[in-house]
Amino acid sequence: MRIYIFCLLLMISGFSCKKQNKGDAGGSNQVIGNVFSVNTFEGDGLPQTVGNINLFIRYLPKSPDSIQFDTAYYLYSVPSGPSGIFTFTNLNSDSSYQIFAMTSIMDSSGQDILFSGHYTITPKPTYPEEYDAQLELTVDQQAQNGIQIVAKDVNGATLSGCTVCFFTSQIVATDTLCQYASFVMTSDSYGRVLKVDLIANTTFYVDATLGADTTGAPIFLKDIAQPVTVKPAGIAPLPMTLN
Amino acid sequence: MRFNRFHSRLVIMPLLVFSFFSGNAQDGYSEYLKFSSDGLLTSKVPALISFRKDADIANLGKRHILGFEITVPFAQLRQEMDSIEKGAVSLHQVLSSPDRSEEDFLKELLYDQAADIRMAFLTNWDANLSLPKATTGHDAYAIDTMFIPQSISVYNNLLYLLWNHKVPAGTIIKDGEYYIMMKGIKDTLYPQVIYDPEDPANLVFRFDLFGNNKKKVMALVDQNKLIEFQIMKKSKLKEACINWFNKLMKEPDFHRQTLDTVASFLMANAARFIDVDSVLMRITEERELGDDFHADSDNTNLNMIVNKVIGNPELYLNSGPYDITNIESVSYWVTSWLWLTGKNITLNPFNFTSTNKVPNRDTLKISNRVKYFARDIDSSVTKVSARHFTSEVANFKVLNDSLSGSKKDQETLQKQLKLDSAAKARYASFQQVSSILYKGYLLYSFTKKSNFTKENYRNYYDSAQNTLPVREKLDLNYSESDNEFIVYHNLPAGSKIIVVGNYSPIIEKSIVTKFWESSMDSTSLTSFFTNIGSAGINLNELGSSTPGKVVDKLATGENAAIFKKAIYASLLSDSSDRPYDSSIQHAYELGTAVALIDSLNLINHDQNKLAFDRQYYKLLRGIARSFPVPDSLKVTRDSTPNYMSQIYQVSSPKPAPSQYAYKIEKITKKDTSIIDTSAFNIGKRYRLRLSLGVEYTFNAISQITADTAGGKFQINNTYQPIHSIIALKLYPFHGLYLQDRSFRPRDLLSRTNLLLGVGFPNPLDNYYLGAGIDILPGLTVNGGVHFNRLNTYTIQSDQVLQQGSYLSTHWFFSLSVDPELFIQIFKTL
Asked: Among candidates B453, B465, B463, which has minimal Cα distance to B488?
């Protein structure tokens, strides 16, 4: 009988060891989600799944101010599937995590727009059918800069097909021709032009014309030489009213 | 005259002396160990009598439980009653009442000597239980089984039943189909005398120690012991007679000394009386008997003869140191010391003597004997012829010479002079007051935790009776720690049992393994069920046996007449408190010596002398041929039981696993016979067993492995709730007993085990600690704690900075079998 009691105590002591440090991947919870991007600066603004990117997970920082999209300090990363679905496994149930991602997406004008986003989650036991995390990536306002031009008429209606020319010189910008412009872009269906990855603190003088070209065709509306200074980070908006 | 009244063949009561032992039983359960009148056990002995708890002991008196029964045939009772009729009656008593028959004297004897007879018939119901010494933890023990019933009453009622063949009104208690004639009254415990009309040949004496309301002391006896019991038959009558005789012989009594003189004379002249009677008969055939000779009345003739002897003492009794010529004294002691038994007058009331009383006979040479014979014959013939047969002397001498010279007569003489061996045997037999009918063993237990079980207690019976099986248990197996007893009952005296056996090693396999092997061979479940079925309980544990019955011719007139005489004893039911010795003294003082002398004086000396002398010689011949009175008697007790139980314990320690093949031999004086030949396996008690099986872990956690191969970080989860398990089972209590073939274990603890195991794959990460039980030996179910070593990682930026582990605990359940079986199963799959 003595030996039985001994073994019983041994079993109980075994269970008392349950609260062990299970490490960074010792949990049994998992998060399944999908990642998508929303561009509010150009295009139609509808969510687009983002496939084949790396998603990162890290413990949720105690201070919200320290939120950084720092891809050098995370636990581990997983790739999203072609349709943007990702899975993080082995999460501890008593820890909060933050999932984040950053990627460049080429827009219709051929620019690589940097998108980023994060999702804070306390892992719970889930089933694969459930999408527990919805990671929305938006145009990154911190790791890139840029200028958004919105061309409108005097009535406030957006003007599609405007030719938007960026000049570094005000003198040249007074010319209606875009012959010496740094960049020439065309407004989209909603009159918007986004130009990213510019040198900070540079002042551009922007011309926006509708209906004319460099060959001297008639110009219906114009607004020229509007100055705008590029921020170190973030998108600087520049509304233009064409007369 | 009571003091000199003897019985040469004493009535030995069939009421035997029992020890009594009782065990417990459930309510309504009763069982009796039954014995025949000579001690033969005719019923089974329970394998084990156990008292489960103290309450059982406390309630013993309320239950009808084990007892002893003895069955005595009526025929035996009648035979023993016959010996009353053949008892010796004092000649004095007969002569004092010439007109009474011998039978009448017997009646008187039985009737008047109530106290003596009662004393003589007192039968001691003696218990003789040899109990083991109490050890620490138990109180002292005592079993009060000393019964001293005045069983004459029982016996008389028995006789009354015999006589009337019905039970007297008012004394019958109808109990079921039995008539219970007697029960205990007052402070006396009587056996129940049971007369079953369906079995008129026998009477049953039943003893219930705990079946009555008597307060009995039954204290705890140490457990796990054998109780030895003896059934003893003891005759109080013999003992009383012997004591009385010895006391009387020690007295410096004149009569006693005179008797010695007579005896010496008669013995010294014994030869002269040999065959004299036949010679005289031949001579006197031509003569007519006198008118006064009463041919039909031996008593009257005896009176005449004795008086003649006494009246002429100088003629025949003229030697010796004492004056025996005084007519009064002589007539008194002669008649007081002569006995009438079977119409023969003897000097000795017994039919035996002690050997030292005939010192000279065997030392005489044949030639001297012949010489003495011739001389004595001459002397006798001279004496006789001087009075009556003058004309026939010549013829007689011729006849005598021819006879004495023949070899045949020499041999006859030699034979007569020897004390025959039968007399020696009678001498020894009479002095044997008690004998042991049965000496046996009973196995009992007072607690549940008994080392004795029915299983390891093999009962054997002597098969001579053909009513009991030779043995009860057959195919049981033992373990090395078991005590094994072979108990043989009904062993006749002078026999013994020896057990010859040898061990041979065997390879033990569990029943599960055996089943697999057998089913693989036969692909049939038959063998399985055969194996399992053989593990069942032997239901044939208790049975009953009925001895053959003999219809008794109880009611025939002849037998009834015999019993009619004996029935007078039954009338002596009034209790007399006169002590034995005082009654003898009373008789001595009030003896009718004067009346006897008067009667002797009535004898007419002128009666027919031929008839007188004929009877006279007959008398003297009878006296001379009777054995001399023994010097003293000694109470002896026969310690050799008629039947006995012998117990044999198989030697220990025993090699295990092994098979013990044994042969039980019964050795008697004549030959040796084999009682039984059998074998059983002795299973080893395994403390450690290896087993293989599978386990299932409840709520198992996946094992994780971080993979950075190819520069790509990946976490792999391996979920494996089922492992193969190799385990070491520890049987801490009694050890696993593989011979056990039943789902119902012999003892549960023997199958209880502790388990230490590792799981596969990854034996270094899976440890098991559990407890379990063998459903069948070799098929084990276990439960316990599964210690699962799980990896831990410290991860940063898709890199493993540190790797560790911890133990996770979960409940598990496992099913395992013997390794050999596991391998076979694996091969099959």
From this structure: B463
How confident is residue B268, by pLDDT bands cut at 50, 70 and 90?
very low
- For the stretch B626-648, pLDDT in tens is 556 677 778 888 888 888 888 77
Point out which residues pair with B660 in neighbouring strands.
Answer: B503, B680
Task: Provide the shortest C-alpha distance from residue B53 to chain A (in Å).
Answer: 23
Q: Do A26 and B798 touch (CB under 8 A)?
A: no
Cβ <8 Å between A90 and B796: no
Stronger pLDDT, B530 or B512, i.e. the higher one? B512
Query: Is pTM, for the whole model, over 0.80?
Result: no
The answer for residues whose C-beta is within 8 angstroms of residue B490's C-beta and 6 or more apart is B40, B41, B461, B462, B464, B465, B468, B643, B645
Helix extents (H) in B182-252: 236-250
Are β-strands A145-153 and A234-242 bridged in parallel, bridged antiparallel, or unpaired? parallel
Q: How many CA atoms lie within 13 A of B644 on its CB side?
A: 17
DSSP output for B20-76: -------TT---EEEEETTS-B-SPPPS-EE--SHHHHHTGGGS---EEEEEEEHHH
Here the ipTM equals: 0.77
The pLDDT value given to residue B131: 33
Q: What are the counts of helices (DSSP H) followed by strands (DSSP E) for chain B? A: 24, 31
Q: Which positions ≥6 away from A239 have C-beta within 8 Å?
A: A149, A150, A152
Mean of the per-residue pLDDT values for chain B?
56
- What are the pLDDT digits (tens) for B108-127? 443 333 222 222 222 222 33
Rounded-to-integer distance, Cα B384 and Cα A73, Å: 158
Chain B residues within 8 A of A21 when measuring between CB atoms: 792, 804, 806
* Residue A76 forms contact with B (CB below 8 Å): yes
Best A75, A78, A92 member to test B by mutation, with max B CBs in 10 Å, is A75
Supply the pLDDT for residue A96. Answer: 83
Residue A232 touches chain B, beta carbons under 8 Å: no
